Every structure is written in C-alpha cells, then in structure tokens.
Amino acid sequence: MAKILPDISRTFNEFLLLPNLTDERCIPANVSLRTPLVKFKKGEQAKFYANVPMVSAIMQSVSGEKMGIALAREGGLAFIYGSQSIESQAKMVYHVKKHKAGFVISDSNVKSGTTLKEVLELVEKTGHSTVIITDDGTASGKFLGIVTNKDYRLSRDNQNEPIDNFMTKKEDVIWAKKGITLSEANDIIWDKKINCLPILTEEGNLKYLVFRKDYEDRKNNPNSLLDENKRYIVGAGINTRDYEERIPALVEAGVDIICMDSSDGYSVWQKNTIDFVREKYGDNLKIGAGNVVDREGFRYLADAGADFIKVGVGGGSICITRETKGIGRGQASALMEVVDERNKYFEETGIYIPVCSDGGIVYDHHITLALAMGADYVMMGRYFARFDESPTRVVKVGNNYVKEYWGEGSNRARNWQRYDLGGEAKNKLAFEEGVDSYIPYAGSLKDNLEITVAKIKSTMCNCGATTIPELHENARLTMVSEVSISEGGAHDVMLKEIDHSYKS
Fold it and tell me: pLDDT value at position 504?
C-alpha cells in the first residue's frame, strides 16, 4: 500500500506573518538582504553572496544575457538558460562577464593592417565599439592605437581601408601605467574628458581598459554583484545529458555558478553530474542541484556534494506537472520540510547548504514568506519575464501590452533534457509539462525590483529582523482561512476608476 503523509500540502497563500517587536534598529535603511548563494563551513564565508535574495529561472523566456547583466547590476543572479546550443549559451555567459568591469581585459583586438570591414565584423561579434590595435592582435600585445565609432563613417569610408589610416595612434592616446588604482584611473578619465583609458605595462603592452561608463554604473548601482575582477557574476543552467561538453565551454566563457535544470532532482543522474564536476574542477566550480520537495531528496543531493539545492515541483505559474503527472507538493510544505533537514544537516556536519525556493511566488509578499520559512533566496520566472530585459517580445493583446512567457516543458520550448528520463523516449519531449502564455508587461527590471525590495525590507522590520538569518530565527507564521485571504485585500468598497490624464 502507498504511504500517505498525514499533513496537508500547503502553499504560500495559506500563511501570514505575525509582527514582532519593532525596535530602533528596524528601519528599512538598516536591513541587509545579503545572502549566501553556495555552501560554506561553519565559521567560514561562502564563495558567492547575493545582495538581493533573488535569482532568475533557467528559462528561454526569462534568462538571456540582458537579464544576466541587469539582475547582477541590482545585486541578484541570473542563470542563463540551457535549452540552446552549447556555443550560444557560452556566448551569452561571455558577454555578461565582459560587459562590465573596473579593469577590463580587452576582447576586441586587431593587428596593424586590419581593414575597416574586419573591424566592423569584430564589433558585431563582441558588441563593443572600442577596438584596440596591438602588434600581434591580442589583448596583451604592444599597444599601437585605438579605434572607436567616432573614427569612421560608414557612409563615406572605404571598408577595405586599413585601420592604420584612421585609428588614433598611441602617441595621441591618453594612457596610464599598470599599478594605477581604479580611483586614480577614474580621476584621469574625468579630468581629461575621455571615455576609455588604456592601462599599459612598463614594456608598453596592453594590460587593461578602464571605461567612463563603468564608473557611472558602479556609482548608480552600489549593490552590483561582482567577482574579484569587478566583473558581473553570472550563472548558467545545465542538464544531466550533455554536461561533459557543456560545462567546460561554460567554464571557458567565465561562468561563476552552474545549476542543473530538472523537474526531478532526486535522481542518480544529478549525482553523476556532480561527480563529474568534482573530479574535473574540485570545489572551484559551484553547482546547484534540484528540484526536490522533501527531506529525502535534500539529503541525497547534499551527500552527493551539491553547493545549493532548489525546492519545488509543479508550483510555477506556467507549469502543469501536477495536473499532467499527479506529482509535486505545495511549495510552503516542501520548503519547510527541506529547510528543517538543511538545519539538521548543518548541525550534524557543520556545512550550511543554501536552499533556493523555486516556484509558487505570485505576490511580492510571497518572497518574504519564503525567506521567513527558511529559504536563503528564491528563483522566479514569471516575475522577471515581465520586464524589458527578458528575451521575449512585447505584444499588444486587446488594449493591453503583454510579454510572451512559456514553460520549458511546453511544445514551444521542447526542453526534453529537463524532463528526459532516458530510454526509448530520449531526445524528444514525450508530452507537455508547461504552457505557452502571456503576462502583463511591467517595464524595466530596476524600477520594479526597487519596489519589491522596499516591500521585503518593510515587512522584515515589522518582524523585528534586519537580516535574513534573523528572519529565519525570529519569524512567526500563522495559517489563514479563505475568509482571511479575502479580508486581506480591498473589500466591501467600490474602487475608483483612476484617470491617468490628471496631473497635479
């Protein structure tokens, strides 16, 4: 006979937080949302932290290179979707890593004699308008000059003309010596009114570039998630089928964290993938596993060596796994049980493994509920898919602007690797576990994320917590009835029609 668990499968919408004492510390300006992304030993620090507890879902309709840049700029982490060719995914990762840095290693380099046509092809490939000329065409060759889009006019210049005829030569370029601080480099940029400052070795070889726009980005985005070289941190999704080819390509592109994308994480296939990573990269490459819904699944992946573990099956807004296969669990119940096992594992081993709650987020307050239940951060698809930075189109349906949003288990995505269990059905999507849909268009990520973060910080203050670990420790939750849920919104009133043409 099947084993039947006595508890009811609960969702976030069935819980509310109770206020704790709000003391003098509890103001939003004092709240830190810094949270570990990967495991660490007691008394030590994790290799990677996020400054906001949010990561983007590993989905075609959510996480491309624009999302990788935008989310890292705000302090979160994007996982570039894996249901594409290895080359294409690696290129996206590469572009995120090269987009921004304090001291940038040039990725657009040519030799003397290169034609304008070849320069334009390179600009198209890298997405960067600044091209460096060195004696050997590498990022570390003897510096000869620089070319930007101000140095040529496509309407009149011959594309077969060699770069030597229109580049700005070294003697006319303002540059600095290796050893200069980033602050000093930025002072030169501002004092000399230039956009790019080459940094050269004593021998005259190119070492780095420093850009004016990067300084402005840093000042405007103090929460940016950066590595030791001041490049954006970026993640990437992988599967348990082509990982032996995909992972090395992602590592070569500069990926910081990888995560297995699967509807069933409680699997020997995930252990095999982790074993491969540990054998080839040791502990240097961080890998997440999942998804699971109970303590047995968590323990299996923890023992296998996962650096973080995702929780959730069937809770996503475009996921139909529960109705298609009858498998899954309410997100709140799944999360609380896994967190309990995570805490026991920490007590036993001294190793803290962050838990990522994936799915079930409908409202902003659900994020805070997930954190209160013990999640270290949340993974969201629908939330991020609404923004300009997601890879999908803005379309008009009726009188409303919407964005396309589809699941990895839909016929549109056909991400068979995510759902494949091997056997004869290999290399194809046997049936759908996701839908193709629209969601209301919401504008820029930055504007919306600021509001969400403000709500989280305010609620944490109400709970007497200024850090996520404090929220874990002190949060109090209560079950709610259907009447309590309806009572929590506007009710028994006639809402005004808002005239958006009115200006005060």
Answer: 34
